[in-house]
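pasting for the record
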Amino acid sequence: MRRVLAAGVPLEGASDHGVSEAIYLRDPDGNGSSCTATGPEREWPRGADGSIAMQTHALDLDTLLAEAD
């Protein structure tokens, strides 16, 4: 993400899905793309029945960058 930001590529969005974190951007031709990192399965949110309970929350980019240091 640091390289993307340093290159001046605007982010289209950034989401925390509970099971993964993703940043969304467009290439120079306007094609949408995402960079996604999946978290450990033991940390995935689960429903009462044990099913995966995905979500869509804003990804805190400042915290993400701080954790990378």
